[in-house]
Amino acid sequence: MSAASSSNPPSSSSSSSPSSLSSSSADGPPNVVQREGATLDTPRRHAHKFGGSSLASAAHYRSAAGLLDDGASSRWVVVSAMQGVTDALLRLVADARAGRDWQADWGALQQRHIEAAALLDSGDALSSQLHDEFAALHGELAALAAPVDGAHDPGHALPGLGEVLSSRLMHAALGGDAAGWDRLDARDVLVTQPGELGCAIDWPATEALLAQWLERHRGTQVVVTGFVARDGQGRATVLGRNGSDWSAAIFARLFAAELLTIWTDVDGVLSADPRLVPDAVRLPSLSYAEACELAYFGAKVLHPQTLVPLQQRGVAVRIRNSARPDCPGTVIGPDGGAAARHDDGHPHPVKGLSLVENLAILDLSGSGMAGVPGTAERLFGALREAGVSVTMISQGSSEHSICCVVRADQAEPGRAAIARAFAEAIEAGQAQGVTVTPDICVLAAVGDGMVGTPGVAARLLGGLAQARVNVRAIAQGAGERNLSVAIAAGDATRALRSAHSAFWLSPQTISVGVIGPGQVGRALLAQLASSTFDGHDEGIDLRLRALADSRRMCLAAVRLDPADAIARLADAAAPGASVDDATTALDLDAFAAHVRAEHLPHALIVDCSGNDAIAAHYPRWLAAGIHVVTPSKHAGSGAWSRYQAIRTASAAVAGRGHAQFRYEATVGAGLPVIQTLRCLLDTGDVLLGIEGVLSGTLAWLFNRYDGSVPFSALVREAMALGYTEPDPRDDLSGTDVARKLVILAREAGCALSMDDVAIESLVPEALRGVSRSEFLERLHELDAPMQERLLQARASDRQLRHLARLELAAGEVHATVGVSSLDGGHAAVHTRLTDNLVQFRTRRYADNPLVVQGPGAGPDVTAAGVFGDILGIAQTLGAQA
Ligand SMILES: NC(=O)C1=CN([C@@H]2O[C@H](COP(=O)(O)OP(=O)(O)OC[C@H]3O[C@@H](n4cnc5c(N)ncnc54)[C@H](OP(=O)(O)O)[C@@H]3O)[C@@H](O)[C@H]2O)C=CC1
Ligand SMILES: N[C@@H](CC=O)C(=O)O
């Protein structure tokens, strides 16, 4: 749980918060929080804490000082050490103890502080104070080489010097005493004592010392040293790692702050680790409980311990980025529910996901364990004795086994401890023994909104199933705020990404790849570029990420702008062309793998190539969860075995939905032909027959052909208008129409193949086997036969139209395609331009067929049909949310 970091000093102090959380206090006595009057935007008593990343240099201290100009009447500022100083001090202590040379590092550390002091304070006072501190440190380090006398470790508190020095620098940056700022050394007031769960605060002693301190100081503007404290005997100590945040929370409570702002190098708490989930989003607000759950499960932003003093008094915390103060950050307060919506307004039961890595499962099973009181106590007692901490526990109602998840490095000691504790039972066969499953991680979904919300587990498990992630163990307590699953470490990233999108923590991005920017593909890209569909309402992000033609492909890491995707593909082909994203020779497997990006939930390939070899990839793509949309008829009308493989693959992906195969534009281009047929059949109608004009090209040719212009000239015009297939013989031979008839018949459940269709071809025998270019050169050879047919038809007052017929009767299927001479009563005679005319005769529409009619060819209408399929898939994905 972190965000993009920056070490640049911040430049502005302005900020605003969208949060509706509020808590406030007047300038009342410490430790009493009043909750009227102020809001988090204008707290009167405001505590701040700056982490080391916000205090890397003198410039950072100045910028931090600027951030405090927040209008509060009273401000306390708790500081960490300068960036890297605590680690440097720990190294100095270790070197001094081990008798290694530490003088040079001590000198460098002193120099760094003196240089910062010189920039922050023109006088000598600050430098001389720092010199004194370093001289004292020198003496204490030198003494560390001597053996330790008694239980008290003299080196223990030395790393806290970083905070003491830092508080002096911050005091100077704020203008010091002259500007009304006091400096409080926490070692003077903050009293710790040993507690059952580690170091605890002696609140009465601390409040008494603080009250004495306040008698001697103004106390309205105070710089406080983080991390350091004193023990019950008045000796200096430190609060442990994350101690500065804890100090800040302690002093915010003592100071009765309405708000504690923790300035750090991240934008706030994110919905997941952005290194694993690039689409992770900042969470505007969290409840204390949510923050604790997320923090425990790997969130680096805030340690749960920090929240305790704040939670006790209802003090809100805001995490903010000192390098990006305009970002509102994350507010953590009593009521995270007040902001149970993300920035896009979507309500989410789950606020965030976390992942704990490097774990192992310990499992004790045995038939003799059922119903035996004390088994769990014995198991966990053994782990306690072995010093093994338990991350997750799960036991089924059969009591046949108990499993728990522990740190990987504690798995073996844990296993041995359990085996010892149950040695007798194992010996007697009542327990089978302890197994260790290594390489485990735990993924947890966290959110107050999960409480009482049905379907959260279904969604998590469904998302994992879709990502083909096996769940080894599950745990959810009655609190319902945390649902944890143990999974194989190798599945971690895939699982996290899939769960993230399953809970709509990020938009349902559909990663789109387009193959074939020809007539139809180009029109589709133009429609994508100008479309008003932004998917916002559906939470859909339709994102073009790849484009390929027959030679090369352009793969964009994030997105390709449809408006210039073709130029990008062409540019990158130029020698020396430089583009951000990779354009290389076409490799369809790499293309599909890129589109099926693991960090994006959905993938879709649009095949506008019209190439049969590409259709051969569909079963594999669909099986991998990639949706396929195409205007190409090859898959729908090609080999029956491939067609079946496509149907099987598109039904087989487990989990939420399946990969869809849509091809509405194959018949009638943009007309709703296939969906009309589907609707008839799905509502229980029975198809009896189809008759009509299924070719836009042939419709246009016969609507235009009156003998005044050679037929071949019209064919050339139809090609130029983008009506024909890439090879116009596919239209003229009737093959294209036959393909459409096969597609419709198969939709109706008939195992029809191209060989079953009786096709009349308009292509003379001599032109069928020649190359496309030779065919086009010899196109005029079509003219004489067509002229003759036209004259024959006219002689009997008829008109030529190209018709397709499908008859289904008594289990028999008859399919024919060819030119017919029709009288004026036939509907096909009254079509215009590229009109397709599809008459469905069904049991319900037996006397008067259901008719779909309209333009049936051309790049724009075809692309619209393809786009409609894409949106159809997007909408079904939206509906699954
Ligand atoms: N035009 C229309 O009215 C209708 C068309 N259709 C169908 O639409 C599809 C496309 O038609 P159209 O746009 O006219 O065809 P075009 O010939 O204009 O475009 C084909 C595109 O596909 C690319 N391509 C061809 N083979 C491959 C391959 N093996 N790998 C990758 N890319 C390839 C071509 O790239 P390159 O330039 O490198 O060769 C070109 O960009 C066809 O299946 C057609 O039946 C469906 C309904 C109506
Ligand atoms: N060439 C085809 C295009 C649509 O499938 C036609 O003319 O109908």
Automatic annotation (TrEMBL):
Its cofactor is a metal cation. Keywords: Amino-acid biosynthesis, ATP-binding, Kinase, Lysine biosynthesis, Metal-binding, Methionine biosynthesis, Multifunctional enzyme, NAD, NADP, Nucleotide-binding, Oxidoreductase, Sodium, Threonine biosynthesis, Transferase. Pathway: Amino-acid biosynthesis; L-threonine biosynthesis; L-threonine from L-aspartate: step 1/5; Amino-acid biosynthesis; L-threonine biosynthesis; L-threonine from L-aspartate: step 3/5; Amino-acid biosynthesis; L-methionine biosynthesis via de novo pathway; L-homoserine from L-aspartate: step 1/3; Amino-acid biosynthesis; L-methionine biosynthesis via de novo pathway; L-homoserine from L-aspartate: step 3/3. It comes from the Bacteria. CDD domains: ACT_AKi-HSDH-ThrA-like_1. One of its GO terms (biological process) is methionine biosynthetic process. It holds the Pfam family ACT_9. GO terms for molecular function: aspartate kinase activity; ATP binding; homoserine dehydrogenase activity; metal ion binding; NADP binding. Its EC number is 2.7.2.4, 1.1.1.3. It catalyses: L-aspartate + ATP = 4-phospho-L-aspartate + ADP; L-homoserine + NAD(+) = L-aspartate 4-semialdehyde + NADH + H(+); L-homoserine + NADP(+) = L-aspartate 4-semialdehyde + NADPH + H(+). PANTHER family: HOMOSERINE DEHYDROGENASE, PTHR43070. Homotetramer. This is Bifunctional aspartokinase/homoserine dehydrogenase. It comes from Montanilutibacter psychrotolerans.
